[in-house]
Amino acid sequence: MYSSLVISQSDGRPMYLQIMEQIKQRVAVGEWARGDEIPSIRQLAVALRVSVITVKRAYLELEREGVIVTQHGKGSMVAHDPDLSPRLYEQELTEHLDHAARLGALLGLRPDELTSRLKRAAQRLIKEHV
Amino acid sequence: MNSISVQFEGVGKHYPDFTLDNISFELPTGSILGFIGPNGAGKSTTIRILMGLIHQDQGAVRVLGHSMPEEQAAAKLDIGFVSEDMRLYGAATVGWHMEFIRSIYPRWDQPYAASLLHRFDIKPQQKIRGLSHGQRVKAALLLALARRPRLLVLDEPTTGLDPVARQEVLGELMAVLADEERTILFSSHNTLDVEQISDQIMFIDRGRIIDSDDKESFLDRWRRLRLVLSPDAVLPRFSGIVGVGGSGLLPVLTTNCFEPRMVSECRNMGAIVQAVDTMTLEEIFVANVQSRREGNLV
Amino acid sequence: MNAAMVKRLIVKDWYLQRVVIIGSLVAGALSLAVIGLGGKPGFILGLILLVTVLIGVGAQLAVATMVFERKEQTLSFVMSLPISYKEYTASKILGNLIIFLVVWLTLLCGSLGAIAISPDKPFGLVPFVAIMATEILVSTCLIYTVALTTEHQGWTIGAIITGNLALNGIGYYVAHIASIARGMEGHSVQWSPAASTLLAAEFVLIVLMLGFTFLFQSRKKDFI
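^ inputs. structure came back:
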């Protein structure tokens, strides 16, 4: 089940971030349920053919964010935190907004123009889902 | 249980035209060390000293608790070694080699050997002479893996392999690491392989270890800052910058000890920070070697 | 010294050189048959054949097992095994010497047997035969010493040539030592002091060369 994580070498982001993101997604969509045991660092490293230290780092960061809980000698599991899913994308949204702001600046857009384009994008998404 | 599998302390070796100088490092049990360096930098010499095949002029080498080269016979009972220049006996078959190695190593794992044969697509009745380069490398690797060594030492194991064979080999190396008591040291000039599976990384150039750290710290420390300068601004200068590239108004700074304060320092000096790029291991390696050779880093 | 490892290495070399080994044993047997055919021509022809086989197998095996190990880059495979220079050197010398001694003893026994069954019983030849047979052993040990310590084909061929020249030179020299030459014509074995000294010197030389080989190998700092 965990070998279904796909790590990309051409994705510019560090591998540990990719692993974190994909685990968060698994948790967000409920594939990895709260309280579920998750693979050990070594198991996941072997399955992904990625170094142990990279997976260890991803787990440490996920633990710090409260996504997973690691108990010594017992392995790791998904945290019982009920607010888990919505909180996961907070940081990613900030990053994307920063990126949009940078692109906007490159295109010479004023802040209010940027806001209105964001509004339009949001409305488009709502329409598509209806 | 000894938690350090390989230990070098101030190891040196002098040749008329090459010197391996003051090599020191430790390899913890259960991890993979990727050893990177240009051709002729001293990777093979270091590895041969580790194996006791070359005797160091000074310094101490301990491998799996054994002092090298004196106790090499005992140490090598637990080591699987494959080097790029190692050849098997051309006139003999793969099966004969397997039988030979099996007679020597008590932990030889026949079912594992059989499954490796299958996965590597090699037949025991094939003569070594009739194998392709990739198959020969995989045959040598099979002989090293199936003896279930506590330490795998691989000198350029993926050189000359096609992409499929490379991934197979990397996959088998990772599978070895599923057991926490096993340790791998492998050298490569293919930084992609090293970046993918290594825990520890060591750079060597011109007979000296120029940098060594765990991989995550390595990737975290190195950043490229893309700046935009106004015509009257001066190039920000502060410690930790090991290289300056780009053009006059669009400089690119390379640092090996990135901290977020660097971005604010650049801004304070009147520069616009356009981007802070992470770097691949290959870029880090090249930047590292260049800056050392230029004397920016000592 | 790990005797089991030495044995495995010897068996490995024998297996890899099985064609040469079996070939030389067959050729040795054929030479004996020629000697057995009787008559002086048969004796001389068989002896020449046997000496040729002996020198051939000594040189061929030494080059194939000692020099080619490096040349064919199998040395790093062998040295990655749980052995030190001691096991490696011992396996090479013993493995080669055992095969060589089989053919060598065949030669020695064949020649002595031929002397014994010859109608005019030329037992006076025995010291000469012993000295010459041992000389061939000396020449072969010289090849081992040079092949193992240099692992270089050129030097080894040099040693082979030197050994052959020495064989002829010493043959001539020994046959012209008055005390030995006198005895050769006789019908009984006569060990002159010169003959005993020569034979002893040859054995000392063999021990010295093999001892030097082990000493040199133990001081080698770069095995690959």
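Chain B touches chain A through 22 residues (CB under 8 Å). The mean pLDDT of chain B is 88.
thumbs up if we can close this ticket
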